[in-house]
Write a structure and sequence with these properties.
- By secondary structure, this protein is mostly helical.
- It has one domain.
- The protein is 88% helix and 0% strand.
- It is rod-shaped.
- The protein starts with a helix and ends with a helix.
Length: 100
């Protein structure tokens, strides 16, 4: 084995070791981000639900809101919350347009 061959082998092994170590560091760094992503997704879902509730409040009368919310959430068969909120917002918007 010649001198140049030994130098090339050393350089290639060094580069491969560097790439491997960087890859391992990135894996360790991104595994912590999965927990953050899950927390952020949960926060987003909670905020979306709050926005839907605020939409209901915005298009309804203050006196009527508590009664309507009670009627839709407790006395009917359970419905997907997002769909129920969207339906209620649509009903209240139509009623407001009609002048009720």
């Amino acid at each position: 084995m010649g001198l140049w061959t030994a130098i090339v082998i050393i350089v290639v092994v060094t580069v491969l070791a560097d790439v491997y170590s960087k890859n391992q560091k990135n894996k360790a760094r991104f595994s912590g981000n999965d927990k953050k992503m899950n927390e952020l997704n949960e926060t987003i879902k909670k905020l979306e639900k709050r926005i839907e509730n605020l939409e209901i409040i915005a298009v309804s009368d203050p006196d009527n809101f508590q009664d309507r919310a009670r009627n839709t959430s407790f006395y009917k068969e359970p419905e997907e919350p997002a769909r129920a909120n969207q339906r209620l917002v649509n009903e209240l918007a139509r009623a407001k347009q009609r002048g009720d």
